[in-house]
Amino acid sequence: MVDAPPSSSGSAPFWETKALEELTEEEWESLCDGCGRCCLVKVEDEETGARIDTRLACRLLDIGACRCSDYANRHEQVPDCVRLTPQTARDLDWLPDTCAYRLRAEGKRLYWWHPLRSGDPETVHQAGISVRHIAMSETKAAGRNYEDYAMRPREGRAAARRVVKRRARKRR
To answer: Is residue 124 in some structural domain?
Structure first.
């Protein structure tokens, strides 16, 4: 996979040159890599405040596509759905460390598998970053203890790092 070609003016792509606040709505939306990780249910221990990531996906997530099935109305349908802004991208510590919004808020580059870099929306799935093969709808767990669906710490992320390291070795 190669980086997106420079614009006709020879400059770097918008995601490398613009601050999050400067992005158009279309540019902002294109930063989403389609991994679905932000749509996984997180459980907080009321006593310790510890967060547990689960394999359970929001009822609106189309797990196969890793996209919201009612994106335009998601905040009405799911009141606790977080509205991502440049500020929340900086503040939310639970955003995946592979999330383009988080990466750009931290001044980091997008990974090779991001659709903006690869030109292919399937690379996020091929790289093992998405929840396509690990998630299940929260509706299937109704009445059950969400902790039963807890992911091991950094589950999925370690696989992503292995893929990135393997890819980095191939480039040498």
So the answer is: yes
Q: From start to end of the chain, where are the E strands?
A: 40-44, 51-57, 61-62, 67-68, 136-137
- Considering the entire predicted model, what is its pTM? 0.80
Q: Which residue, among 33, 52, 30, has the nearest Cα to 43 in the 3D structure?
A: 52
Tell me the pLDDT tens digit for each residue of 6-21.
Answer: 445 568 999 999 999 9
- Beta-bridged to residue 42, according to DSSP, are 53
Contacts of residue 4, Cβ cutoff 8 Å, sequence gap at least 6: 13, 116, 117, 119
Report the alpha-carbon distance of residue 150 to residue 91 in Å, rounded: 23
Number of independent structural domains in the chain: 1
Q: Is 24 helix (H, G, I), strand (E, B) or coil?
A: coil
Q: Residue 152 domain-assigned?
A: yes
